[in-house]
Amino acid sequence: MYNLNGTDIRIYKNNFEKGNIKHAIFDFDGTISILREGWEKIMEPVMVESICGDQKATPEIIERVKNFIDETTGVQTILQMEGLVEIVKEIGLVPEEKILDAWGYKKIYNDRLMVPVRERISELESGVKSLDDSTLKGSLDFCRKLFERGVTMYLASGTDRVDVRNESEKVTAAQYFKGGIYGAIGTIEEYSKDKVIKEILRNHNLHGSELIVFGDGPVEIRNAKENGAIAVGVASDEVKGHGWNEAKIDRLTKANCDILIPDFNEGDKLLNYLFGS
Length: 277
Fold this sequence. Notes:
The protein starts with a strand and ends with a helix. The protein folds into two domains: 2-34 and 135-274, HAD superfamily/HAD-like (Rossmann fold), CATH 3.40.50.1000; 39-126, no CATH class. The chain has helices at residues 39-52, 59-72, 77-91, 102-126, 131-134, 139-148, 161-170, 193-203, 218-226, 246-254, 267-274, and strands at 2-3, 10-11, 23-26, 152-160, 180-184, 211-215, 230-234, 259-261. The protein has an eight-stranded mixed sheet. The chain is of the alpha/beta class.
């Protein structure tokens, strides 16, 4: 690993052809938008409460939930909830008749999550908060410049499709993603990031460095690497909207990213590197 020309951009692998990018896939939450910052802190108690029922949570259960969320960041929420159902049944603290299905747990989580999300959108619309407060530093400018280079861009999120489309409009990112805006619509058979990547590669007859994937979760980074695309990990501190998040650095390097950035503040230098200019 080395840092690119004194920047915060970390290069882990540079054995791909520069200047060859034709298509780009972006995760949304934590990569562009920070409207859902803190979702893990909402999902964790939902899962712990669901597993423990009327019993007191143990450190082991809390740690297991934390690890599960960390490992599954980037997949559809419904798949995380399917995993939750399995853990609830396995640990056995909740009577079988009180165990919900994945959709039931997802509703509890989503109802809680949307309280701060709607508040942030309201603040953005009223002018109390700005686009800079709602997006990762430099992300909108980076998207615009990539779009202006003629790259076909796609959003692919684990969040429900209707919400991704709405929130990407709110933060003015949607205009750049002419390739499509994808989000969860049901099961993994109906939608997954891996499926989107494979369809783009197949439909456009792309190979290797013609496709680049940006994301802050290990799922999209692993999917990118498994399909031969360039993988850029975004280890973003969503609370500040810029700078490094140590936990994300760990999970994205383990997922085998080619490049790691804290945000898009040095987007011009990253573009120059990627395009060999």
